[in-house]
Amino acid sequence: MRKLLISLIAIAALGTGGAFAQSGFWAGLSGGYPGAQVHFGVENAFAGLDVRGNLGYAFFAGNVFGFGVDVMYGLDVDTGMTPIDVYVGGGPNFSFGAGNLGLSIDAFVGGEYRLGEIGLPEGGVFLEVGPAIQIVDEFRFGFIGRLGFNYHF
User: How far apart, in Å, are the Cα atoms of 74 and each of 2, 29, 100, 129?
Assistant: First the structure.
């Protein structure tokens, strides 16, 4: 277990090390199903793809802790005059607690409303929904849904 955790952390660090030389970061928090998360993201980390790391607590899924990495791609959707960024994304999420170790692959579609019109150009409110497929511990289908706040810097 310890070797697996150290290997995963090393892979994440090596995979995102070059990304931090880019500009455009954000941090935020969200709540929903299956729980609450804090996250940190890098815009345009890899050729138009954003990368986000998550830490969370899933109180609806057996009181487990988790961490994951999402890759996100912005869609060119005409939202008129409304400042909403629409995107798709997904990635692996690892969970542990209550004697279990789990791995799920999540996918989502989301939108972020930037708060520049109310005087907070760095802020954004987002909503994401999509399917989740748990592949370790037991195989099952589920969903994710979150509402949160991002601060861009």
Answer: 36, 20, 34, 15
Three-state SS at 51 = strand
User: What's the pLDDT at 18?
Assistant: 46
Task: Give ∠ CA 148-31-35 in degrees, rounded to 5.
Answer: 150
pLDDT at 13 over 60: no
Please tell me the distance from the alpha carbon of residue 35 to that of residue 33, in angstroms, as a whole number: 5
- Tokens at residue 33, please? 């199903």
Fold annotation for 2-152: Porin (2.40.160)
Q: What is the pLDDT of residues 71-129, one digit of tens each?
A: 999 999 998 888 899 999 999 999 998 778 899 999 999 999 999 888 898 999 999 99
| Residue 8: pLDDT band with limits 50, 70, 90 | very low
Give the residue extent of every domain in the chain. 2-152
Q: Which residues contact 78 (CB under 8 A, 6 or more apart)?
A: none
**Distance of alpha carbon 130 from alpha carbon 121, whole angstroms:** 27
